[in-house]
Amino acid sequence: MDTTLPDASGSSRADMDAALEANTAVTAPRAGVLVKVEEAPKFDLDTYIANYTGRTRYDRLYLIGTCSPLLSTDALKAAIAEARSSKDVSRYERAVRALAEVAPNDPDASLDAAWVQETTRYVQTQTERLEHELRGYKNNLIKESIRMGHEDLGNHHYETGDLAAASKAYSRMRDYCTTPNHITSMLFKMVNVATERGDWMSVQSNVHRLRNSQSKPDDAAKNLSKITAASALSQMHQGSYLEAANSFLSIPPDLGDNYNEVITPNDVAVYGGLCALASMDRDDLQKNVLDSQTFRNFLELEPHIRRAIAFFCNFKFRQCLDILEAYRPDYLLDIHLQRHIPQLYKRIRTKSIEQYMIPFSRVTLDSMAKIFAPTIVGGEAHPTDISSPFVQELVGLIQDGVLNARIDLEKGLLVSNQIDLRAEVQRTTLESLREFNEEAHWRILHAAVLEAGLEVKPEKGEGSGLGKAGRFPRGSGRD
Amino acid sequence: MTLLSDIISASAHLHNSNHLPSDEYDRRIRELVEYFRRLQSTKALDSFASDGTFLSNFDPVIDSIPYLFVLRVQIQKAQEINTNVLPADLRPSGKLWTCAAHFLTNFDGVQVRYAGREWRLLVELVGQASQAASMASRLFFQSYSGSIANLTLLQPLLGAKLVRDAMLRLDPSCAVFTSSHLLLVRLCLQAKAYSCALPVLDKQIFHFPISQGRAFSGPSALCADHASSVSFMTEASGVSSKLSYRDYLQYFLYGGMVYMALKEWRNALHFLGIVISAPSTNPVSLIMVEAYKKWVLVGLLEKGKLCSPPSITTPHVVKVYQSLARPYIILAHAFEHGDLKRLDAEIDAGKGVWCADNNFGLVSQVVGAFFSQTVIKLGKTFAALTVADLSKQVFPSPVCADVTRSAVSSLIISRALNATLVQTKDHAESSMLRFSSIHSLPRLSYESDLQSQLKQEMRIMEALVINLGETNNNLGLSDEYVDSLHKGQVWSGSNEVNPIVGGEAGLEMDEDLMGDMS
């Protein structure tokens, strides 16, 4: 069966892509500033990590180990075990170094030099062997063998942590794919590599190719959940939370445990719920999230998210924010959420203040502070003074145009602005009339000046004149 | 004395001629002007030149032309005798000055249209005389203290008033730019009598005197009732001296300065906008650059932001402005940024520049405008706050509460800020500033005020529409337009209508046919 690629491209194109990816690759999850999470998270480390398979296990363990002082030893030890069971030497070394910082006396905190040496040698011979085999296949010109050769090499690089080489190898497979299945499996591998590298643009483009691939309807339906999940994840990482929320909400419930190397159904519920909370208003939340038949299956896994959204929809912002606050440490220890939590929480908070204000024409600052800043109410003498952080937050929101209200510091009120339509119309009419008149006069005069031949032009044989007007030395003195 | 009776009988032709058809009147008045020009060239009038009582034979209201010519001759004679352009008789309170003033306040507008050149020379002389008088007295009183300065300002004011009244008498719409416009604003600026120029400045200028050949020369005579003054204020009439681009640029710049002095920022911006957007073949006049500098500052005062030049300004001119008015633009950015410290620093740093450009007065007003803009902006965030809190928001360094309070109350009194100051009961706390919302405005006065403003804008718009038609008409009859119409027709072939010109090409078709036949 003869198939073409979704986007037909020559071998040179594939190489170029790979080179480009190598350049733009960012190892974002690990390169960012370290977040320290002092509070104890609510999850149990063992059961948490048991949900995942593949290389993400190590990444997650390592992140928890470096970010949470409480769990660091356990998590890093598990990470070391994870790394030793694979063939990735650099990961092992990194985990041991991290452990040596937190628990220098631990037996695992010193490098097992023999293992490192042995594994390195093994990896090297294996690479050489696979490359040799691939050359042999290429000489024989059998497409399928070449494809498998590339795939083996890619898998090998992926396992040993050489992600750039892995994605290069996978992208070279493209020219030798003969069936739609080959293409989808190759693209999924590329998505996985790109996800781990944090290269979300590449995830997005590969997801796009996956959507356009001409596989059989059965296969397409089976892959749809994974494709949507990958796309949603990349949208979230690019900061477009509304699109991400819609993608998460549209993930079919048959995702199950199929995609545990990247995302679990619990993650879908949490990510989707938070993105939706941060980007949708109350009606949309009720309609698209709580009443959604498909997303209900995910939400049942994380009931507190469901409760938070329900509270938000019922105007109980304090309870909603409390739940989110309680789970903040958990989310900060999540490999994908960590970078977005501050932004997401800020948006949710802003949105709840905005929604809170809608039904009122005036609200006392005290009652607002009780809901949105309970710690300030308890801790400070004048919770509604101009210098209090809560009032400053409101000031910021008003100046950004989020809140259409004004603060009355005498009576301690937040007064919503009521626009007097009549006065507004009068004002804008007068203003536009004036602007029109001015502009029209300018233009008429402009025409009159041109007609009278009085435009500013260089004058022959003129010195500096009165000192008022002189020739400006620009371009050629054409008259 | 026969000459006198000749003159009287000649001018008597015009008396009671209101019932005459306008072409007959036109013919008679042309004859009369011709007669006087002839008398003038043959020096026949010289015999009356020194006769002070001779002028009293004429009433400028009905005998404007004889009065004007005789006055001219008398002034010339006085100039010759004293070998001085401005003899003492012509100075304010002099004999000739009184006659000139009498004429300029009473002349007949229609008659003078025929003697535009003589009228202009008289107006210019009056202007020069009052200016020179103030110069002389300034020199004379130099040793005295400043209180005399008021006296020296009075004399240009005398001249300015005369020039203004004469201009309005000749052309009540003042829609055509003449050299007298420039003379008037210059006199007013010198006299510091800014509101004196307003009756003329407030009339919008739409036209420039056009040469006779291009003027749309209908059958109507000069004396007829013209819808627009552009048809009798032509280049040939001599009402205006030969104009250059500098004249009108200066006029609008000076006019803008008059408005600035009166703190009518919006009008000032409009005038400066005219100068900034003046069409240019390539070079940029320094007057325009000067105007742009003022434009930036006035824009800050009126709108609180850096205004971009009018959309019709050519791009290369804008670039020149931006490079030549760099300090002003930086100042405007500091203002927009809302940082008082930076603004102060910028003003300090550019002190030399402001002084050299004579813009220091405007710059010092910018600081005050900054305060009011910030307070008004705070009114959008707060409904009420204490003055102490306010000063914390506005000033980076602590300021005495009384300073802020007095500044705020002066803002409220000047109606720049719609708010009330409330004294709280316990005097320990600082007083409360409450911004009013739009609701609590005194509705009735506000509405009637608005209505009158709308009406005024409507009047302006009506004038604009009329003059737009006029301009359109003039442009349609200009050589350039006919040329391009012709070209367009040649290009597009005989049976296609030029898409640019559209249906109006019908008129041109006839001419072409004629061309073929001849």
From TrEMBL, chain A:
<dbReference type="InterPro" id="IPR000717">
    <property type="entry name" value="PCI_dom"/>
</dbReference>
<feature type="region of interest" description="Disordered">
    <location>
        <begin position="459"/>
        <end position="479"/>
    </location>
</feature>
<dbReference type="GO" id="GO:0005737">
    <property type="term" value="C:cytoplasm"/>
</dbReference>
<feature type="domain" description="PCI">
    <location>
        <begin position="240"/>
        <end position="421"/>
    </location>
</feature>
<dbReference type="GO" id="GO:0008180">
    <property type="term" value="C:COP9 signalosome"/>
</dbReference>
<comment type="subunit">
    <text>Component of the COP9 signalosome (CSN) complex.</text>
</comment>
<dbReference type="InterPro" id="IPR019585">
    <property type="entry name" value="Rpn7/CSN1"/>
</dbReference>
<dbReference type="InterPro" id="IPR045135">
    <property type="entry name" value="Rpn7_N"/>
</dbReference>
<keyword id="KW-0963">Cytoplasm</keyword>
<keyword id="KW-0736">Signalosome</keyword>
<dbReference type="Pfam" id="PF10602">
    <property type="entry name" value="RPN7"/>
</dbReference>
<protein>
    <recommendedName>
        <fullName>COP9 signalosome complex subunit 1</fullName>
    </recommendedName>
</protein>
<comment type="similarity">
    <text>Belongs to the CSN1 family.</text>
</comment>
<dbReference type="Pfam" id="PF01399">
    <property type="entry name" value="PCI"/>
</dbReference>
<dbReference type="InterPro" id="IPR036390">
    <property type="entry name" value="WH_DNA-bd_sf"/>
</dbReference>
<keyword id="KW-0539">Nucleus</keyword>
TrEMBL record, chain B:
<dbReference type="GO" id="GO:0008180">
    <property type="term" value="C:COP9 signalosome"/>
</dbReference>
<feature type="domain" description="COP9 signalosome complex subunit 3 N-terminal helical repeats">
    <location>
        <begin position="53"/>
        <end position="315"/>
    </location>
</feature>
<keyword id="KW-0963">Cytoplasm</keyword>
<dbReference type="InterPro" id="IPR050756">
    <property type="entry name" value="CSN3"/>
</dbReference>
<dbReference type="InterPro" id="IPR055089">
    <property type="entry name" value="COP9_N"/>
</dbReference>
<dbReference type="GO" id="GO:0006511">
    <property type="term" value="P:ubiquitin-dependent protein catabolic process"/>
</dbReference>
<dbReference type="Pfam" id="PF22788">
    <property type="entry name" value="COP9_hel_rpt"/>
</dbReference>
<protein>
    <recommendedName>
        <fullName>COP9 signalosome complex subunit 3 N-terminal helical repeats domain-containing protein</fullName>
    </recommendedName>
</protein>
